[in-house]
Every structure is written in structure tokens, then in C-alpha cells.
Amino acid sequence: MALGEAGRYDPGGDSSFGRTLLWLTAILGAIGLLLYLFVFDTWVIPSDDPQLTASIAPTLSPDDRILTRRGSAPVTGELARCFMPDGSGKYTIGRVFGLGGDSVEVTNERVAVNGVFPKTRFGCGIVSVVHPVSGDAMPLTCTVEDNGSFVYSVLAHPEFREGQRLAKVEPQKLWLVSDDRHIHKDSRDFGSIDVTSCEH
Known about the structure:
Shape: globular
Largest sheet: 5 strands, antiparallel
Number of helices: 3
Strand order of the largest sheet: 12-11-4-3-13
Structural class: alpha+beta
Radius of gyration: 24 Å
Strand content: 35-45%
Number of strands: 13
């Protein structure tokens, strides 16, 4: 009910408010649609890919909804969603560890860019991850790394030794590394990846 001058009932007040609310909703909806079409994208992490599920731990989980910026180029240390280079149209998610011209070194599940390893700040306990092949729970050690721009948690096997891997990242490519360094789905499996196939 709306009151006009001197407290008299104004029969047009409710409909005026309703029209204003309708216009406001339509404008906000149009802005949201434009942002979705041209600026942002949302994606729900699938729950039917055990390898991806293990590789994104402990940062993300299946059914998490992530927001990416269309046409954005990720920087070193950021999480990025990238198309798999096998042409399947599926995505993988990893942390960027090297852009065109960088040298990447992986030694016993630690990753350095141009000879510099991220600082290990502190431990974050033991995280159990389901192995994608055996289905068994695998306890992995969690630590928090700091690359100077980003702070994030990573998982590694306390006894695994893989030796040293070196890679030189080609121009217009990036090197992707899973936050689960032990059960991964990243550039150690498929090499460097086109920057244009990734968003963050």
C-alpha cells in the first residue's frame, strides 16, 4: 500500500515501485549477461576425472565453481584453466611456472623458475588424496609456498625422488604445474602449452 499527500492512499504507488524494480532487475541482468559473454566465464570442475581431481588438491575440489577472465594471459604463480593440448576439448588446471623464454627445473617435486625456487613458508599437515588408478587413499605432505607474488599450498610425496627435469619454455607458451606435485596432470605429462588456450 502506498500513501500520497496528507496520508491519502495512492493507488499508483505500488505499480510504480514494481516497474522500477522490474527495470532495475532487467538492467542488472543485461549487465550480467554482457559480462558473461565478453569478460568472464564460469566453470564447474567435473567430478568424473579422477586424475584431475587428484591433481588440483589441496586448492580445489570437484564441483567447485571457478570464475575466469576471457582472453586473459596468466602470470607466473597464478592458477590457470587451460585446454588439454590433445584436442579433446577438455580442461586441466595448474599453476603457471614459466612463460616464454623461462627455464623451468623440477627436482623431487619442487619447481624452480630461472634457478629460483619459491620459499617454503610452513607445513600444513598431511592431506589424503585418492589415487586415480588404485582408488587407495595416499597420504601426501602439504606445504605452503611463496613465490613473491602468490602464496599457495602444494602436495608432495615425502619419499618420492624423480631426479631433475629441465625445460625451456618456447615463446607464446607456458609451463603448467599441478598443486599436487605427485599425482599431476600438467606440463610434465604433455609439455608446454599455448598461452592462448589458458585463462585465469
